[in-house]
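Tokens as discussed.
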């Protein structure tokens, strides 16, 4: 099923509902711009906000959430807030502590989704045990991972009591991750895209422009629509109100099977971020 509107959700394997579409705040620094972006997104109808400890902007995200709630009158329960534990905090006790620190900065009582940010070898299993504890204690609604390849997921699930609900990875038309997507689908793990617009590198692509012209849509909107029709949750980053609005205007058209295949055909297995098998942080 493809999302019909900005508040449409997918149901994770534990029954929790996660919006198909959200806003990411990677590399957005603390300050008025960040607060305004989060608040604007909520006012516009976004219900999912994605941050991480390493972004060092959880306090501003929390402020934007509080202001957005106040101005729209929605409840905290209507929002879906994600954060991630950073590599230096991977470990049982240290992950539980990091979760508390993230909550404090955000000013929230719980998170909807907490992710292991990167699969640091020899460390992510202990961190996963901590996430399972947080989940079993009801302190977080859903748990998952980020940047995990198939072999990382297989390794994790060998010892895990609870399988991840989400895997957030780099995903765009130059990196279609078909094997990983099929694996996640088979195991009921929801795939989520970071950097869906490839940091703007695809916005001049002729194929995307051509498809967009047919529908009166931008290449960015075509890509985000492609994500949704592929069953991938997506969280484009933007701080500008007009872009936040434009990114979400992807529910009033549908790509044909042929157009989906043309976009799939742009794949080059090309990353803008690090390869999860080869990172040094």
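Sequence:
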């Amino acid at each position: 099923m493809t999302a019909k509107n900005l508040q449409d959700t997918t149901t994770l394997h534990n029954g929790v509902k996660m919006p198909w579409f959200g806003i990411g705040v990677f590399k957005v620094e603390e300050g008025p711009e960040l607060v305004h972006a989060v608040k604007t997104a909520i006012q516009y109808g976004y219900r999912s906000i994605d941050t991480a400890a390493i972004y060092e902007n959880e306090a501003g995200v929390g402020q934007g959430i509080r202001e957005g709630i106040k101005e729209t009158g929605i409840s905290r329960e209507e929002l879906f807030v994600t954060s991630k534990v950073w590599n230096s905090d991977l470990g049982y006790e240290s992950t539980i502590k990091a979760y508390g620190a993230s909550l404090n900065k955000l000013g929230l009582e719980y998170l909807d989704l907490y992710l292991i940010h990167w699969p640091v070898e020899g460390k992510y299993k202990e961190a996963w045990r901590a996430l399972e504890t947080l989940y079993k204690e009801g302190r977080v609604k859903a748990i998952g991972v980020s940047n995990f390849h198939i072999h990382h997921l297989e390794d994790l699930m060998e010892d895990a009591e609870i399988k991840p609900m989400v895997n957030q990875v780099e995903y765009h038309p130059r990196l279609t991750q078909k094997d990983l997507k099929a694996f996640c689908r088979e195991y009921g793990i929801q795939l989520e895209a970071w950097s869906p617009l490839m940091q703007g590198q695809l916005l001049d692509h002729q194929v995307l422009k051509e498809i967009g012209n047919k529908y009166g849509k931008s290449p960015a909107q075509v890509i985000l629509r492609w994500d949704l029709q592929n069953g991938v949750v997506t969280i484009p980053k933007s701080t500008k109100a007009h872009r936040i609005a434009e990114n979400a205007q992807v529910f009033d058209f549908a790509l044909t099977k042929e157009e989906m295949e043309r976009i799939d055909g742009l794949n080059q297995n090309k990353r803008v971020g690090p390869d999860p098998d080869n990172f040094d942080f």
